[in-house]
Input
Amino acid sequence: QVQLVESGGGFVQAGGSLRLSCSSSETIRGAAMSWYRQAPGKERELVAAIGGGGSRKYADAVKGRFTISRDDAKNTAYLQMDNLKPEDTGVYYCKRRIVYTDLEDWGQGTQVTVSS
Output
């Protein structure tokens, strides 16, 4: 199992920005990378995903505010979060998935707290 390490979380005021990073111990080339989040008492939800070919998907709640990207040479995926809202608060997890399989790896999560 690969190691995924998220970083970049923190405390921000509504309207602020954060950039999350997900560093993988193995190559992310050919893998789909995604970000999920989980608020207290709620189910984990998909926030954004990027395929190996660069295709992107976003949850409706974050469209126009969040941007997912990847740097395969650095084995790192990113989530740029702008115009943050209190409802964005939660633990953000990075996921690496080998396409065409059900093999997945998850990071430990990084806390994002947005105050009103």
